[in-house]
Amino acid sequence: xxxxxxxxxxxxxxxxxxxxxxxxxxxxxxxxxxxxxxxxxxxxxxxxxxxxxxxxxxxxxxxxxxxxxxxxxxxxxxxxxxxxxxxxxxxxxxxxxxxxxxxxxxxxxxxxxxxxxxxxxxxxxxxxxxxxxxxxxxxxxxxxxxxxxxxxxxxxxxxxxxxxxxxxxxxxxxxxxxxxxxxxxxxxxxxxxxxxxxxxxxxxxxxxxxxxxxxxxxxxxxxxxxxxxxxxxxxxxxxxxxxxxxxxxxxxxxxxxxxxxxxxxxxxxxxxxxxxxxxxxxxxxxxxxxxxxxxxxxxxxxxxxxxxxxxxxxxxxxxxxxxxxxxxxxxxxxxxxxxxxxxxxxxxxxxxxxxxxxxxxxxxxxxxxxxxxxxxxxxxxxxxxxxxxxxxxxxxxxxxxxxxxxxxxxxxxxxxxxxxxxxxxxxxxxxxxxxxxxxxxxxxxxxxxxxxxxxxxxxxxxxxxxxxxxxxxxxxxxxxxxxxxxxxxxxxxxxxxxxxxxxxxxxxxxxxxxxxxxxxxxxxxxxx
Length: 528
Description:
- The protein is α+β, with helices and mostly antiparallel strands and 528 residues long.
- Helix content is 30%, strand content 26%.
- It is globular, with a radius of gyration of 23 Å.
């Protein structure tokens, strides 16, 4: 991150949704072999109400793995503040024999729930939908869930809360659900450990433009309404979905390395941002040269004038606050690089638990500041440090290391799930400092191999801090367990390889306070 009443498509209606999504799973190759006799014989039991994340014990759900979401969404009028209405069909694979299971959902509505085409009982318990199918679900089997009649009401961003996942302003609506806000928008398994492919249908008045994560597969206008179909074939975490409907103009740019590029800009602001966003072509080539092939089919920027206070790497269409452009070019151009880098680090390879968020933010910050140093943007991006030299930048961050750890804990030991703590400077600049130390230890060439190996080995998956340490050890041919373990888990900043003269300001000293303030990017919450 640098959060229906009229007629609808019959595709998601009861048995129709079951048949349609079963067909979709076949096309996408998601169906697994039938459950074995041993799996079918397992005694059914309830799936857990949480996936096991240490920061969010109630987030996500156990007992199943979502394979595909089919969303059928409707915006009844062109009024920006109107609720979104929807139905959905979910294909999932049971990881245990289920007597019942949960979906995360904090929105409104839900009129009916179906499992494998049959009506299922359901109750609402806080932010959970507890579903009891007519028949138990055997371990290993693929089952289909239909949910009808849910809705989500957009908010005007204020304090950064999960309920701001669907936001609006005079131009329309957009989504920004990281880390735990997307279950305010639609029922799901709201954790990056459970990624899935998506089919997204949007029905809206003709005067509006609808965009979503993935590729536009079809657009059909009938009377005063238009139906848009987007397909996200690659696995996507719920918190990364983008759903934007409003008075937008889509700007298609010349592809780079086969990647289709589109930007989505409020029509009234088209002249202001169209040329600036074109820098993405240069940045895409720059990132591909360092991280390898872009993992998706399309990319672009969504400009939002709703006062979000941050930018966010929603998959294939990063959302940016127009306020980010109030400063010099170096600052907003580097922010764009940060969110682009997330498409590899955080989107394609997602964190296994939210305590692994430094793998997202440390990497995105690493490429942001590396790009900034090369393009002479770094001094604009981090004005309090005021240098375009990468080594000098990290020397300044290093000086603040113990203060960061005293204030926020170790890089991979986030203390709680408040947004200030989860997205604290030690997972951004401190996470990037870990990567600088790794490069100092193994050399530039080996470091580059580790980076490419990471996004290749875990493409489309979720991976942990310990996975990164193990892979870095394997690629480098040396055991980095103690070295990287100290950098990500210790309460004290380790010595910097190759720079024995670098010192860390003592935590609590005036020098440490000044160093920490300088090294934390102003308005760091803008980056997620």
